[in-house]
Write a structure and sequence with these properties.
alpha+beta; Rossmann fold; OB fold (Dihydrolipoamide Acetyltransferase, E2P); 2 domains; six-stranded mixed β-sheet; 9 helices; 20 strands; about 35% strand; elongated
């Protein structure tokens, strides 16, 4: 699979504040890549630079081997779908979809064929004459996507397009976007701060914070093997604990030795440990590596969310289908494969990037 997008050493500042700092990113053709991170991390600025709406202070935007850094948006082989769909309220659905094709002076027969094709693709057959204001949020979002795809872009940029929808509709549209991506065979770059969206839809997730890429990988890699505390904390719930690596495959957490599978962290070295709440097993006190008391329970439908407080005062977050009564003494067991070891940040600057 060839590289479609190559962002090289991209930096951008607004009012003296650096939003992107020497960012490098390659995107393979026909992939679904999600830029994920908190507000202000630089993900939308990255998308706007790709779309041609913002020019980088430094660096180059390479598209299919060509430098398009200074190319205006209308000259790029891509389209953008924004959170605010920017549909034209005075135009019918068909006129909205045809807008870009008419600018490109396509024939009327070609335009009508494309309108029908796009509406069928987004499951809105027969909506040609409808008024934009008569549509629900989800339908408007589909029309915005239809307007983008009739132009046959090689790349579709989506800037939090589901943010205004309710939960059920958002979930439905996630599956619609996956289907469209497969049917169209074009490259999607999607921006969101919603970790569930990223995990559901993406081939690759790029986790960003403070203008830096913190980690890039498959959803499974990002969730199961976070490279630092920021990624572990941002993607799903985690128990992030300061610990000591006794030696290879053995880590000391709150005075108790837990077997693990990690190597190469040294002997008696301080490390951070990530343990997902679903990986904490509650057993009989005598069978646990640590002992604690259940101090809090919330029923979440699929599982119970519990807090187990150990004698040192740390509150372990536990997800389990089995409920334990508040006040009950329990043992804590974790399978060695479910203990993720990470290096402590090497400097205060690195810690700021990781923890802010």
């Amino acid at each position: 699979m060839g590289v479609l997008v190559d962002l090289q050493h991209i930096s951008k500042s607004f009012d003296g504040e650096k939003v992107l700092d020497d960012l490098n990113l390659t995107v393979p053709e026909n992939s679904f890549v999600t830029l994920l991170g908190p507000s202000g991390c630089g993900k939308t600025t990255t998308l706007r630079i790709l779309g041609g709406f913002t020019k980088p202070d430094e660096g180059r935007v390479i598209f299919d081997g060509q430098d398009i850094t200074n190319l205006p948006p209308n000259k790029r082989q891509l389209n953008t779908v924004f959170q605010k769909y920017a549909l034209f309220p005075h135009m019918s659905i068909a006129e909205n979809i045809a807008f870009g094709l008419r600018i490109r002076k396509k024939s009327e027969a070609y335009i009508q064929d494309k309108i029908k094709y796009a509406l069928k693709l987004v499951n809105l057959d027969g909506f040609e004459k409808r008024d934009v204001n008569s549509l629900s949020g989800g339908q408007q979002q589909r029309i915005a996507i239809a307007r983008a795809i009739v132009n046959e872009p090689r790349l579709l940029l989506l800037d939090e397009p589901l943010g205004a929808l309710d939960l059920k509709l958002r979930q439905d549209m996630q599956y619609e976007l996956i289907r469209l991506k497969k049917e169209l065979g074009i490259t999607f770059i999607y921006v969101t701060h919603d970790q569930e969206e990223a995990l559901t839809m993406s081939d690759t997730i790029v986790v960003m914070n403070q203008g830096y890429i913190q980690q890039m990988g498959t959803p499974e890699q990002i969730y199961n093997e976070p490279e630092n505390a920021f990624v572990a904390d941002f993607i799903g719930d985690s128990n992030i604990i300061g610990a000591t690596m006794v030696r290879d495959e053995l880590v000391n957490i709150f005075g108790a030795n837990f077997p693990c599978v990690d190597k190469g962290f040294g002997t008696n070295k301080p490390v951070d440990v990530v343990i997902r709440p679903e990986d904490v097993e509650l057993v009989k006190p005598e069978e646990g590596t640590l002992v604690g008391h259940v101090t809090h329970i919330i029923f979440k439908g699929v599982h119970y969310e519990m807090e187990v407080t150990t004698p040192n005062g740390y509150e372990w977050l536990v997800h389990s289908t089995k409920c334990c009564d508040i006040g009950k003494e329990v043992g804590i067991h974790v399978d060695p494969f479910n203990i993720q070891i990470m290096n402590k940040p090497a400097s205060e600057d690195e810690e700021a990037i990781v923890n802010e």
